[in-house]
């Protein structure tokens, strides 16, 4: 099979990857609190809420993927 691009797969990934945000291993307490809060908020809705609302709320609209959406801290 013929390859369509001149780049190999590694260079394609590197060229189109988002800028990585570095996080120090020694965080301030405030930064750690913000990360913990974001981690707690990032979960699916409980099943009892789906039952209570008659399935009008089906998923967490503010759900965040760790790689796609950054927190901006």
Automatic annotation (TrEMBL):
SUPFAM superfamilies: Ribosomal protein L39e (SSF48662). GO terms for molecular function: structural constituent of ribosome. GO terms for biological process: translation. GO terms for cellular component: cytosolic large ribosomal subunit. Gene3D superfamilies: Ribosomal protein L39e. Keywords: Ribonucleoprotein, Ribosomal protein. Belongs to the eukaryotic ribosomal protein eL39 family. PANTHER family: LARGE RIBOSOMAL SUBUNIT PROTEIN EL39, RIBOSOMAL PROTEIN L39E. This is Large ribosomal subunit protein eL39.
